[in-house]
Write a structure and sequence with these properties.
Blueprint: E1 22-26, E2 29-33, H1 44-53, H2 58-68, H3 71-78, H4 82-96
Antiparallel strand pairs: 1-2
Helix pairs in contact: 1-2
Length: 106
């Protein structure tokens, strides 16, 4: 009889590289979004097509944001001042331990 498998140990992380939700206190209220580390894996063919059609990569970035954000949070983020949105994106990426750019196909 084979030995029973040991359960996989999952490290709980709350700092950089966290799978936990990211909470951002903004001027329009608290915004809670999923960590980029746990959003659905993007369709790489769609990423390649978006990058081919848009060399600035903005369309691919928006596609990834749509995967990660609820429609409500997306609407809230559209109301943030530019500097605050930039801070949100930087802190969200730091919290998640990766950037939106890491999803891009090479």
């Amino acid at each position: 009889m084979p030995a029973p498998r040991k359960p996989k140990v999952v490290k709980e992380s709350t700092g950089p590289g966290s799978d936990e939700d990211f909470v951002f206190p903004s001027s329009v209220g608290e915004i809670t979004v999923r960590s980029l580390a746990v959003i659905p894996k993007p369709n790489q063919l769609k990423i390649v097509r978006l990058e081919k059609d848009d060399p600035s990569h903005m369309a691919a970035t928006f596609y990834l944001l749509e995967l990660a954000l609820s429609p409500e949070n997306y609407a809230i983020l559209e109301d943030l001042p530019g500097d605050e949105l930039e801070t949100f994106l930087e802190e969200w990426q730091d919290h998640s331990g990766l950037t939106l750019g890491e999803y891009r196909a090479s």
